[in-house]
Amino acid sequence: MNSEPDLILNPYSLKQLQIYIDSPSFGLLVSGPTGSGKTSVINWVAAMLLGIDTANVNTHPYVLKLPHDAKTGNISIDSVHLIDPFFGKAVLKSNQRQISRLVIIDDAENLSLPAQNALLKNLEEPPIGSTFLMSSAQPSLLLDTVKSRLMKIRLASVSKNMLKNHLIATGCTEASAMQAIALSGAIPGLAIAVANNQTEHPMLVAADAAKKLLSSKQDQKLKLVSWLAKDTRLSGDVLSVLQQMARLSLENSVGEQARRWQNVLNYAYSAEERLETNANLRLTMTNLALHI
Length: 292
What we know:
292 residues; alpha/beta; Rossmann fold; five-stranded parallel beta sheet
């Protein structure tokens, strides 16, 4: 069992995760942009709580991963109804750990509204020794009543130096590592995807859309917004990429260029905040596109 996760984490995020592991509550919600390593983090936390290797989490008899619909990707109320029978299974008396049974919900923003309402009862009264581990790229899509029952950790960005060293350790040259970091806005999963030429990675799609928003003419931007407005997750990923790109560019910009990147950062943050209050997606992304 690894006491340190085999992934790239900001030291502050790692400290927060360790606090939860040392004293687990009813549940944990790990959030961050697509590509930030949320699923890997959840699996590591599960392994630490159960005292097993990360590779064995998916097959452990006391771990339930809620299934997603194969076509839509949604998590239905039928999936949530699997929790009660799972909690009804007896745990071997030889297991004396503080947490002996847990439910994992990846991409929890895909929980339907009925599924979230059904989940509330389980979150309110989990059996002793049980907990929930959830991940989400868009926690704003979760009910406040769900989030209020969870310890919330948003994965903080990692330093370029940490990311560069990781990429070099996995076989990249320094030049290709720095190029991947620049193209990815220093999002770990995206940087690794760029370095490995994984063209279908969802964050590469978001990165391409972000670049088009920054460089296209107004009519082309509005066409792009029409496409983005159909996909809440992709829009959220685009905002994350814009924020990362702006923060990275501000480190090496002065004068008018710096002011432009600061403007991009401000509007990307503002759009994210509006979406967290369930503002209209098309209007929010249109306002962003017209001002960056």
